[in-house]
Write a structure and sequence with these properties.
With 117 residues, the chain is mostly helical. The chain has a single domain, classed as Chorismate Mutase Domain, subunit A (Up-down Bundle), CATH 1.20.59. Bound molecules: ligand ISJ. Keywords: Isomerase.
Amino acid sequence: MSPHDRPLREPADIPAELAQARRTIDNIDAALVHLLAERFACTKRVGVLKAEKNLPPADPEREARQITRLRGLADDSGLDPVFAEKFLRFIVDEVIRHHEAIAVEVRGDEANSGETK
Ligand SMILES: C=C(O[C@@H]1C=C(C(=O)O)C=C[C@H]1O)C(=O)O
């Protein structure tokens, strides 16, 4: 466990309920960071697989289906679907940038090893 996993220390003079709510927020933020780290580790692998198979970095058709699904999940759970879509778009755009960089790297490696596809 990293020392950053612990919730932040709050001043002693703040109301107990506010301090408790902030501990919960800190735990949720920690979980979000862990989840994003896992997601990016997984998408990195996908980027390598796609580059090796000469597939494009972005898959707009899959993205459209993910957006529809997440908007539905957001609606069901009381989260603003517009926000859910923006949040997914933000993450996916970053993933696509990673995939473009991975594709350049893999192509370079192939050129250096004299491999053809
Ligand atoms: C991860 C992939 O690559 C891209 C990133 C996606 C994502 O982060 O969910 C979805 C589709 C692709 O545009 C994939 O093709 O599955």
